[in-house]
Amino acid sequence: EEDDEEEVSDLIGDNTATPSVWTFAYYQTFFNVDTNEVLKRLKLSFIPTSRFHKVVKGKGDLYGPFWICTTLIFVLALAGNMAHYFSTPDSERGSWHYDFGKVSLAASTIYGYIVVVPTILFGILYYYKATKASLFDILCLYGYTMAVFILAAILCGVAATSNAAQWGIIGTAMLSSGAVILLNLITMVSKKIVTMTILVTAAVLHVALAMVCINALSFFLQIICSTE
To answer: How many CB atoms lie within 10 A of CB 61?
Structure first.
């Protein structure tokens, strides 16, 4: 019976030793952040400096990135459906229905991006033994920098401006978040010879994300073009 209790204690991380990656306690540490910490990291994600990594180093969380990306997914899906609804003629709105496919597409893209891209970058750094950050630090960086796209999506939804303005909003979000990512990635690389590979890879994949966001908001662009 004592052995069973000890086994359960190990599983939930009820011990003083560093928890194993196979225990719940190990992953609980990445959600153990308070509101002030989340807000501070969120603020730094909008400022193109390398301060984000200096604050987060060794203390990366997944709580903020999870809720930021979840919010972005629903904002993108809602924006696309709203635009589709308002572009539908009054006589056809009675048969209009919500397209849940947009939620699935947005979720696959956003969650996939913040998991796959940091993993690829960390893999490159680990292979060349050039990393000064953990995988979770990189995941944290990418997750928080998605916040600017929430603002961009909202602006695209409330500002019925020109086609160029819509692209400008997404482009500005891409440059802002991209600058934060690149400036902080530089501080995570211990070998200069690997820096350019990391930066080019990150930049290309970030541009690809921006293109996907533009595609997700394409309904807005179609409405604007049709009214000009």
So the answer is: 22
**Amino acid letter for position 214:** I
What are 118-172's pLDDT values in tens digits? 999 899 889 888 888 899 999 999 999 999 988 887 787 665 555 677 778 878 8
Distance of alpha carbon 124 from alpha carbon 126, whole angstroms: 5
Nearest CA to 121 among 177, 181, 60? Answer: 181
| Tokens, residue 131 | 């990393």
**DSSP secondary structure code for residue 1 in this structure:** -
Helices (H), 31-162: 35-44, 51-56, 63-87, 101-127, 135-144, 147-158
CA pair distance 225, 141, nearest whole angstrom: 36
Bridge partners of 189, per DSSP, are: 131
Burial (CB < 10 A; 0-12, 13-18, 19+), residue 103, is middle
Strand, coil or helix: 189: strand
Distance CA 45, CA 23 (A): 30
Nearest-angstrom CA–CA distance, 103 and 122:
28
